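Name: Transcription termination/antitermination protein NusG
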Amino acid sequence: MPKQVITGERHWYAIHTYSGYEDNVARNLKQRIESLGFEDKIFNVLVPKEKKIRIKGGKRETIEEKIFAGYVLVEMIVDDASWYVVRNTPNVTGFIGAGTTPTPLAQAEVDNLLKRMGVEEPKYKIDVAVGDRVKVTDGPFKDFDGKIAEIDPEKGRVKVLVTIFGRETPVELDFLQIKKL
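Structure predicted for Transcription termination/antitermination protein NusG:
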């Protein structure tokens, strides 16, 4: 880490990893911090994730989805030794910053991210968009075809335009009551 200004202040930094190895990097880094005695320089290792509800095979399941694939956040005091510990963790490709100088994340960004991760209500994850053709699979309009007019991911509901007696009629349904054509 050439020409690094050592401030002695603790900040959050983003490190780039190979995509799909974020949890592995976080686990390895935590082990390295403990075994090398860097608890006083590297305080927190975090893989940003949020809970989402995915509908698969007609069933709801809550999943944790990475917010930033390929990145891990580290709260640390940067000096040559702590930089070396993080940088030489397996599957870490480098710090985010100019050249070899890590750039700290703005505290507002970190606070926003931590708040987003702490949200209790999981969001719905569905693979349809406004304008898609769907088939109603449950309820009084079962087996009707329609077109999605609105999606409310917070409530897990969609408004579908179903043709009844030659007229399009808006019907509000749960995500579980439709299937993409």
